Amino acid sequence: MQCKATGNPSPKLYWLKDAKRVDMTNPRYILNDGGDLQINNSEEDDMGKYECVAENSVGTEHSKPTVLYVKVRRVPPQFSRRPEALSEVMLGSNLTLTCVAVGSPMPYVKWRKGDQELTPDDQLPIGRNILELTNIQHSANYTCIAASTLGIIDAPAIVKVQSPTEVSISEVTATSVRLEWSYKGPEDLQYYVIQYKPKNANQNPNRNSTSIL
Question: Is the pLDDT of residue 198 over 60?
Answer without folding.
Answer: yes
